Amino acid sequence: MRGFSRAAIVVGLTMTLGTAIAHADGSGNPAPVSSDDGKYMDKNGNPTFKIGKDGTVDWYTYIGYLRYAGNCLQCHGPDGLGSTYAPSLVAALKTLSYGDVLQIVAGGKKDVSTSQNLVMPALGTDKNVMCYIDAIYVYLRARSDGALGRERPDKHEPRPAGWSKYEDSCMGS
Amino acid sequence: MLRCSTKVLLTAGLLLSTALATTTVRAQTDLTKMQANASDWVMPTGTYDNHRYSALDQINTSNVGKLQVAWTFSTGVLRGHEGGPLVVGDVMYVNAPFPNTVFALDLNNDGKILWKYEPQQDPNVIPVMCCDTVNRGVAYGDGKIFLHQADTSLVALDAKTGKVVWSVKTDDPSKGATGTDAPMVVGDKVFVGVSGGEFGVRGWLAAYDVKDGHQVWRAYSEGTDKDLLVDPEKTTDLGKPIGADSSLKTWKGDQWKIGGGDTWGWYSYDPKLNLIYYGSGNPSTWNPKQRPGDNKWSMTIFARDPDTGMAKWVYQMTPHDQWDYDGVNEMILADLTIDGQQVPALVHFDRNGLAYVLNRDTGALISASKYDPAVNWTTGVDMDKSSPNYGRPTVVQQYSTEAGGEDVNTKGICPAALGTKDEQPSTFDPQTNLFYVPTNHVCMDYEPYRVSYTAGQPYVGATLSMYPAPGGTNMGNFIAFDASTGKIVWSDPEQFSVWSGALSTAGGVVFYGTLEGYLKAVDAKTGKELYSFKTPSGIIGNVMTYMHDGKQYVAVLSGVGGWAGIGLAAGLTDPHAGLGAVGGYAALNSYTELGGTLTVFALPQS
């Protein structure tokens, strides 16, 4: 009886904590604590999203939406929701950390068995992906945390001062 | 002396060519004869003319409602199953998506496996297969079964034993080239093309010798005249010689080398004219700003001599594509009466939403009509022969992603990149003179942006979001179309895009499958639904029919996937509906799951 109450209390606590941390994902609490030229960071230094009350998204979330659709949608489906061909990233990012995501995107992933043939290519040399990987991550993190719906972000923060220079140097011309 | 040797040589040459011609003719006659036997289904397209019509009439409008499942077969692969089986005599040949297993099934013994071929392929080819690891079928000819594997190996199997007779590599998957197409055999040659438009793979069609697999010719979609296999003086475009460097002149610098124009669709053949027909796909990248020019000969219908590969005529449907409207859909060869004139027509339902009718002998353009009223990117094709834009579609500026430019979201374009129709082949019924067309009724927003090319990596360059065409929630229609008048005769709305190849029959019944997994039979005259049965998974395969032991069967592969499975699995939303409008349209994954089953139907024993 005593043991049971204790268990119930623990469950209650966990639930309260779960509610308090509204958006916990594979990288922890996504709340932004710092920013650098339009890019927001959580308390662990991982890139994260910032979405204003009026729906204005940070630049990285916006660019991530665009680049996701150009480079990832062909397998993972619209809005990160998965397809008949590849898993949902909205679901995957609930447990994968920023580091996990970087590693999988750069190095690829294989799950080949008699029942399935899931193969993700190593995209480490693909500039269309790697130059925007933080943006893609931030976009998917916002999707996974339920902070961003399926629609295209309507309003976004202005292009950061250093963005074009960064993009040119990364993509080459 | 000189004269004498020449004469001898000439005679020898003549004899040789006569001998060759005889062999070719005999082999051709074999398949030409075989395709006329309605009991069999000897090629993926049913017949060389791509009618997908069967003279079988045991199953008809009055009894189709009693259809039952006769037997089923699992391919063991849970992926998108495009294409369909062949039947040659007592044997059915069916193949699966990657790893591209091929089975020979004994129709005398409830589909017992006579032999199985399972290639060993590097799984690294999987992620370079844009939009699922599909394969659209095997071809039969010369006692062999031909398979174009994902890794671009073209393999000839002994039809009796399944043993590999020969195998050749047709392209390089490390650069994004893959094999997904169903080969076609004509005479002593087997024809294949290549996939990879989203990886900047330069398209080609090639002929290989059925005996030993040596390449006889290869014709590229882009490049020098020699690479294209065109004669600048004799090859025509809308009746005029195409001139020198017709492709090179329409690209900036060397961009044609990674220019796409892939050839992953269907091939047809006219034995009388001795011409083969096929289309080329989108130019790479999807960002039109990055590749100025008409990008010839992407998005083009080709008519070629099967023996030499030389192009007789070409016609580019969508110059300088801005929407990913690949031109690879089937070319249906039908003799039509148009304005009282008999026309040897080629009818093509293009991704761009226009149904093209051309004279298949001369390449003359007869008409181009919208086959979905939603199509809005063009007001139509300029049919004025004296116009400098003769034969070109008039693009509506509002829907031009080129005019919109990079990093601008061009909204409300119909059709979406899926096209009004994708590869799922239509059928032509010579009894009703109607074409039955599986269509998509989906529109899109399209935002192109700069991309850089890395060999073997996706080279896409656009963001797009898709949603049903305005005014409804249905994402597809199954339509009857009169190509002589350019009019839709009837249209059956479908909740999802219709992504299954259709079959018409002498019994007055037309069959198709749906993405939810239903096999449906409708009345050819009215479109009225007469039968439906839900198979284990969504259908993106093509319906076929055959006769065995005096009984007619209808068969279709189910196994959801392909572009449809990727785009529609989670359902579409309307990006213009504002915040909160989530899950506005049906999600395919509420109806079906992965699968890989052949379902064979027949009437009950009477």
Task: Name the features.
heterodimer; A: 173 residues; mainly alpha; Cytochrome Bc1 Complex, Chain D, domain 2; three-stranded antiparallel β-sheet; two-stranded antiparallel sheet; 8 helices; 5 strands; 43% helix; globular; disordered N terminus; B: 606 residues; mainly beta; Methanol Dehydrogenase, Chain A; six-stranded mixed β-sheet; five-stranded mixed β-sheet; 4 helices; 8% helix; 34% strand
In short:
The complex is a heterodimer of chains A (about 170) and B (about 600). Chain A is mainly alpha-helical.
Describe what this molecule looks like in 3D.
- The complex is a heterodimer of chains A (173) and B (606).
- Chain A has 173 residues and is mainly alpha-helical.
- Chain A is 43% helix and 9% strand.
- In chain A, strand 2 and strand 3 form a beta hairpin.
- The N terminus of chain A is likely disordered.
- Helices cover 8% and strands 34% of the residues of chain B.
- Chain B is built from 4 helices and 40 strands.
- In chain B, the strands form 10 sheets. A 6-stranded mixed sheet of chain B has the order 16-15-20-19-18-17, with no helix packed on it.
- In chain B, strand 32 and strand 33 form a beta hairpin.
- The longest helix of chain B has 35 residues.
- Chain B is globular.
- At the A-B interface, helix 2, helix 3, strand 5 and helix 6 of A face strand 31 and helix 4 of B.
Nearest-integer average pLDDT of chain B = 92
- Measured as a percent range, the helix fraction of chain B is under 10%
What structural class results from the helix and strand content of chain B? mainly beta
The overall strand count of chain B is: 40
Distance between the termini of chain B: 79 Å
Query: What is the count of distinct domains of chain A?
Result: 1
